[in-house]
Amino acid sequence: MATVELRFSAQPEHVRTARLVAAAVARRAGVDEAVLDEVRLAVGEACSRAVGLHRSHGITEPVSVALTEEEKAFSIEVGDSVPGPGGDPAASGAGNGSGAGPDRPDPETDGEGEDEMGLAVISGLVDDVEVRSGAAGGVIRMSWPTADAAVRP
Description:
The chain is 36% helix and 24% strand. The protein is an alpha+beta fold. The radius of gyration is 15 Å and the shape is globular.
């Protein structure tokens, strides 16, 4: 299992770099060429969301991106440092795409429509996506199938 990790300051100009790195690592991992644009777009949305959350909450910690090549899948986790609820996955929005919780903004009541729109875009681009949050921050995990390892050069 090979993993590439990125950490970047919450500045919008760094999102492009994360997209380019994600596409390059996805290609190397064996993700189908036809899906690479979706990978780029999904990573861009997830990183933009994390940057927006950091900036709106005054958080100076970097945004984290982990790109992991597994035997038959390629996954990306984009993490933010905005505290959310701990413990109860149902309260954290895990699996339902909301990402809202007691300490995180509710997109419908706090004017964070862009946050909700970004999650909708990601869900439309990625079949396997999970959104979760906890005391240490939130994570969007996305994965795509790869070609058989024996076929790759």
